[in-house]
Design brief:
The complex is a heterotrimer of chains A (441), B (471) and C (250). Chain A has 441 residues and is α/β, with parallel strands linked by helices. Chain A folds into 2 domains: 282 residues, no CATH class; 55 residues, no CATH class. Chain A is 20% helix and 39% strand. In chain A, helix 7 packs antiparallel against helix 8. In chain B, 26% of the residues lie in helices and 35% in strands. Chain B has one domain. Chain B is an alpha/beta fold. The radius of gyration of chain B is 21 Å and the shape is globular. With 250 residues, chain C is α/β, with parallel strands linked by helices. Chain C has a single domain, classed as P-loop containing nucleotide triphosphate hydrolases (Rossmann fold, 3-Layer(aba) Sandwich), CATH 3.40.50. In chain C, 37% of the residues lie in helices and 30% in strands. Chain C is built from 9 helices and 12 strands. The radius of gyration of chain C is 18 Å and the shape is globular. Classes of the chains: A alpha/beta (441), B alpha/beta (471), C alpha/beta (250). Strand 19 of chain A pairs antiparallel with strand 23 of chain B.
């Protein structure tokens, strides 16, 4: 009681982190970034906790973010021991890859990337490519409810990768960023920053897992994607944490003239997931594709909020989020297409489909439209229901046993999303993991 | 004159309802709201203590509840509750003959075509002028069958055994700030009871008229349809265009017993300075059906989300909604479908048209809790934008628990495109005719759900609104 | 008595497309305009009909001596001008029968009503002529129609509205030979001393079925060559490059 009173700036249950989670990263961080860290900490303290009345947290179980405490990660030599067995758990054919354990860079190999591509650890990038990073770093504020967490992210020591692809460079193949986390309530702050300059192309796969079933890391990640003048980015986040983890990711895409960004979330693990994704179509010809495949069971809660923001004329976007739910799992999808004044000739779609596989699973859908322009084609749809009995019947009539038929249909349900990704290696990797989780259910 | 034309003329209401008579009220609660206002209303109505207490509790809730501006329009903040007159009447006892209605009131309703409609196709009419009904009548044969159709004041006094059982049960006082306000100051509205098995063939109609400036109308309607009975109720409303904003905040509760059917039709054409904040909900028992057909053309801000609680097995709920938002208007409408029993089905079809700087919003809620089976919801909302600066929003929320249900929601936004108008004009239609044809085409399938007389009126009202919208 | 286009200049977003086009179609004649892509064919039909995207900067268009450029789109239609669209627009929710009826109604003086019985009799007879199924009366205008069905529907409207001058904008595009035959039959049935036709097409094929009195070649916003129906055959054989080289030589 008395401790709360001595810290009047703390919010009601803000006890969970009392100082910025920072450590020495062995690099000289630029002043502008240190200022961001300081401001972010201030914002973190000032920003109130989410409340249920907040539309951005409607249907959310706020108990899941009543953190007891977020703990700092240990030093590098305390990690490593468990890393070996995860080395093989990645996309084999990746053209570049790196591995983080509790935010420490364990290894990386970007040697096969074209010469003028910059790909390096985020703190290293802050030190060595300060001006370039500054131009793109956290340019868009979190706006879908997680302002407080974004501020915590900004105040804390980050891990992750900065990738800059110069004009006309097309990277053939995928770059993998792999995170393995462990510990009790350890705070992990991954930051991925990808910039695709004119007519360049890059594909990034980010892979999250926990060292053991009992580990309970709290991840608060942010991703900045910036594509301009015909640049193309595919970013896929694959989250397969253990059942005690909590995972939050706030993604912001800035899509410029004739550029295209694909942003994909796949969630198989964690007790609680919050994905926020904002795509800004800022210039004519911008195209955004957002999709997500989620398989939730047990008491998992996957909470996803999206915004397709059309700011310029002649822009397009498409969104497909699919949830397969079992046991007592809950999902929340809240998506908004916002067509701003003057963003005429927008073409925008949004679909959320929920497949409920148990009597106690719960799917919430809030697909929204706000249209303030003319000559617009926009639609959204949302369905929730069980696996179609007719489909099962059809497969069984061909000789497939009921259980297998059920699994095939469910897998096919999520596979529709996976197939929207580019890169056979990435698709196969994700498909294999999804199939494995289905087997376990 | 052809048959069609005769019907059209019969149901045609005055274009805007924009006329008023000088005020001459016997009872006036004055301006502002406090406990004394409630006492004034109760005294005049000679109400029992339990109603007095009900009103006072409601006032407390109203004062305590914040404005729902965290999700709804900030325009709500422009309502000046202390500048409103909460009760105005020329007496409490409605007459049963138009001849006995005071001249200016009678003239009002004649200009709105009500007595003529009554003769032609209605089974009963109630006409409310500000706070109280001036006229109320139901066809004799219905009365003989035990159908009760009176205003709510009379309902409370004459039929407390039925009234009290359901009053405030479908919509509790604290449901929202405006249901609390209504519960504190309600006056007028209809009370209907249809006994078991009685199928009322022709619609019952209520007409709500605001005549006085700065006046708030707070009618309270309660309709109970007993086992296997059926009724269609229609309401219309108008007000003159005053300089200052007017408030209309009704509460409508429907109860459909086993196998009963209620169809509730609204053609809302308030002048565009009326805040129209209405709570409407029905309770459907086993195999009962409640349909809301809701058409919003007038008002400055309408917030109205008719709902159905499907409490009995195989109950059905439906909302058919048409909204037209013109310059300076915000039609914030929608539907609320609460599934509370097995095999219940609900259907929502909403079409909105935004003209000029008008804004239409759809808000929907579908809730299917766990441990039920066989529930279905289908929702479609389509928006049509007419001008470059028109606006539309859609905010549905759908919760489904369990794997024995199916829900489907679809929404789309489209335009009356320049090329479409060009095509029609090339065939010789004027721009306005082309626009009217396109807009009516957009709502055609819904307009068919209205009784013929009303779909004709609806089309005319929409044409009126569309005038001058192009170019 | 003619549809007369004189020194017509028109532009879209300040780019001049028609650059002094002159053409006269007397009643009773069928004129064809052929031209390569981008020569201004579709612009011509839209400008005559009064589409707002096109700005007339110079010249005149008259119907039987009456200037139509100052008229609204629908006034031009009621003055007797009919445009069969290359891409007929869909009108959701409005049935074909009601649409045509509304168009006919707009031609009557105030207070006069169309006789519904006579109207349907006439409509059905014309649909039979065009081998159109009766179900098209109840379906929304052009919604879900195939390419051929849309074009037939254009001809049906033309037959119902009985215009003085008809502009057929690439009516043959996307039609198979059977549909083309039916469409041509409808047009030919409407040929009369009281009516003029301007048939815009990219292909000579259509002119085998609708035989023109005069053929014009449109190139770079102007009529560069006119002749009898054989000119179409010559164009088909030698290609549009022939015109270009001839122009360059001249």
């Amino acid at each position: 009681m008395s401790t709360t009173l001595t810290k009047p700036e703390m919010s009601a249950h803000g006890e969970w982190v009392s100082e910025p989670l920072r450590r020495d990263v062995g690099a000289e961080l630029p002043d502008w970034y240190q200022q961001i860290q300081a401001d972010s900490w201030h914002n973190f303290l000032e920003t109130p906790e989410p409340v249920r009345k907040d539309e951005n947290w409607r249907f959310a179980d706020l108990k899941k973010i009543r953190f007891e405490r977020i703990n700092p990660v240990g030093s590098l030599n305390e990690q490593g021991s468990f890393v070996e067995r995860f080395r093989s758990n990645r996309v084999d054919s990746a053209i570049g890859h790196c591995l983080f354990a509790n935010g420490h860079l364990i290894e990386s190999d970007f040697s096969q990337l074209p010469d003028d591509v910059i790909a390096c650890e985020i703190n290293e990038a802050l030190a060595n490519h300060s001006e370039l990073v500054k131009e793109h770093f956290m340019q868009d504020p979190a706006r879908l409810g997680s302002q407080k967490f974004a501020a915590l992210h900004g105040a804390s020591t980050l891990c992750g990768v900065f990738i800059h692809v110069p004009k006309n460079v097309v990277i053939d193949g995928v770059i993998e960023i792999h995170h393995v986390n462990s510990g009790e309530n350890t705070g992990i702050f991954p930051h991925t920053l990808i910039v695709a300059e004119a007519n360049s192309k890059v594909s990034v796969f980010e892979n999250f897992e926990t060292a053991g079933k009992g580990d309970s890391p709290i991840t608060v990640g942010m991703v900045d994607l910036d594509a301009r003048d015909g640049g193309k980015i595919q970013y896929a986040s694959f989250q397969n944490n253990g059942p005690n983890a909590r995972h939050m990711q706030i993604n912001a895409s800035r899509v410029g003239r004739d550029s295209a960004v694909k942003n994909c979330f796949v969630n198989l693990g964690s007790m609680w997931v919050r994905n926020e994704a904002v795509s800004r179509m800022m210039e004519p010809g911008a195209d955004s594709q957002m999709f997500s495949a989620n398989l939730a069971n047990g008491t998992e809660e996957y909470d996803q909020r999206t915004l397709q923001l059309h700011e310029a004329q002649h822009t397009t976007s498409d969104l497909l989020y699919k949830n397969a739910l079992y046991d007592d799992a809950r999902t929340i999808f809240s998506g908004l297409i916002q067509v701003g004044k003057g963003a005429h000739h927008t073409d925008s779609y949004q679909t959320c489909r929920n497949m409920l596989g148990s009597d106690t699973a719960e799917a919430n859908a809030m697909p929204g439209l706000e249209i303030d322009a003319d000559q617009v084609k926009c639609s959204h749809g949302s369905t929730s229901g069980p696996i179609s009995e007719e489909e099962i019947f059809y497969l069984m009539a061909r000789g497939i046993p009921a259980e297998r038929a059920r699994r095939m249909i469910s897998l096919g349900f999520l596979n529709e999303v996976i197939q929207r990704l580019e890169g056979d290696d990435v698709k196969e990797f994700i498909f294999g993991k999804v199939e494995a989780k289905f087997r376990a259910i | 004159m052809s048959q069609d034309q005769a019907t059209l003329d019969a149901v045609t209401i005055d274009d805007s309802g924009d006329f008023s008579f000088p005020e001459d009220y016997q009872h006036d609660a004055g301006t502002g709201l406090n406990e004394a206002t409630l006492d004034y209303i109760s005294d005049i109505k000679k109400e029992d203590d339990w109603i007095r207490d009900f009103r006072k509790k409601a006032l407390k809730i109203f004062n305590d509840k914040p404005m729902p501006t965290h999700w709804a329009s900030k325009d709500l903040e422009n309502i000046k509750f202390q500048d409103i007159r909460y009760y105005l009447s020329q007496g409490q006892k409605p007459t049963r003959s138009w001849d006995e209605v005071p001249d200016d009131v009678k003239q009002t309703f004649e200009r709105l075509g009500i007595p003529e409609k009554e003769r032609k196709f209605l089974a009963g009419v109630e006409a409310q002028f500000d706070s109280e009904a001036a006229y109320s009548n139901v066809k004799e044969e219905l009365e003989k069958q035990g159908v009760i159709f009176v205003n709510s004041t009379e309902g409370l006094r004459e039929h407390p055994e039925i009234f009290r059982k359901w009053f405030g049960k479908v919509i509790p006082t604290g449901d929202n700030k405006f249901s609390a306000l209504n519960s504190a100051v309600f006056s007028g509205g209809s009370f209907i009871y249809v006994p078991p098995g009685v199928k009322v063939a022709h619609p019952l109609q209520a007409y709500f008229r605001i005549n006085a400036e700065n006046f708030g109308q707070f009618e309270r309607t309660l309709i109970i349809v007993d086992e296997g009975a059926e009724v269609t109720y229609m309401e219309g409303c108008t007000a003159p265009k005053f300089e200052t904003a007017t408030l209309h905040s009704a509460v409508v509760e429907l109860v459909a017993m086993k196998d009963a059917k209620i169809q509730y039709i609204t053609v809302q054409n308030w002048s565009n300075n009326v805040f129209n904040l209405v709570t409407k909900r029905g309770l459907a028992h086993e195999n009962a059906e409640i349909r809301w057909i809701d058409c919003n053309i007038g008002s400055r801000l309408t917030m109205k989300y008719p709902g159905v609680i499907m409490k009995g097995r195989k109950a059905r709920g439906e909302v058919i909604s048409i909204a037209l938002a013109n310059d300076g208007q915000h039609q914030d409408t929608g539907a609320k479908m609460i599934h509370a029993a097995d095999e219940t089905t609900s259907n929502v079809v909403s079409k909105s048209i935004s003209v000029g700087k008008g804004r239409s919003t759809y808000r929907g809620q579908v809730h299917i809790p766990k441990h039920l089976k066989g529930c279905k919801n289908n929702t479609e909302c389509d928006a049509l934008l007419i001008n470059t600066n028109s606006r539309t929003d859609t905010y549905p929320a759908i919760t489904v628990r369990g794997n024995k249900h199916a829900t489907q929601h679809e929404a789309s936004v489209s335009q009356v495109s320049e090329d479409q108008i060009f095509y029609m004009q090339q065939r010789g239609l004027s721009e306005a005719e082309a626009m009217s044809l396109s807009v009516n085409g957009f709502i055609n399938d819904l307009a068919r759900e209205f009784p013929m007389e009303y779909s004709v009126e609806l089309k005319r009202l929409i044409d009126l609104e569309m005038e001058g919208s192009v170019g | 008595m003619s549809l007369k286009i004189d020194n017509l200049h028109a532009s879209v977003e300040d780019i001049e497309i028609l650059k002094g086009l002159t053409l006269e179609i007397p009643k009773g004649e069928v004129h064809a305009i052929m031209g390569p892509n981008g020569s201004g064919k579709s612009t011509l039909s839209k400008v005559i009909a009064g589409h707002e995207d096109y700005e007339v900067t110079e010249g005149s268009v008259t119907i039987d001596g009456e200037d139509i450029l100052e008229m609204e789109i629908d006034e031009r239609s009621r003055a007797g001008l009919f445009l069969a669209f290359q891409y007929p627009h869909e009108v959701p929710g409005v049935s074909n029968a009601n649409f045509i009826r509304a168009a006919l109604q707009s031609r009557l003086p105030d207070g006069e009503e169309i006789d519904a019985v006579a109207y349907y009799k006439d409509l059905y007879a014309k649909m039979d002529e065009l081998e159109m199924d009766r179900k098209f009366t109840g379906r929304s205008v052009n919604e879900g129609f195939s390419g051929g069905e849309k074009k037939r529907n254009e001809i049906l409207q033309m037959m119902m509205l009985e215009p003085k001058y008809c502009i057929m904008d690439e009516t043959d595009s996307g039609l198979d030979i059977d549909a083309l035959r039916v469409v041509a039959k409808g047009v030919n049935a409407m040929r009369s001393p009281d009516r003029g036709f301007l048939v815009i097409t990219h292909y000579q094929r259509l002119l085998d079925y609708i035989v023109p009195d005069v053929v014009h070649v449109l190139y770079d916003g102007k009529i560069v060559k006119s002749g009898e129906k054989d000119l179409a055959l010559e164009l088909e054989e030698k290609g549009y490059d022939w015109v270009k080289t001839e122009l360059a030589a001249a």
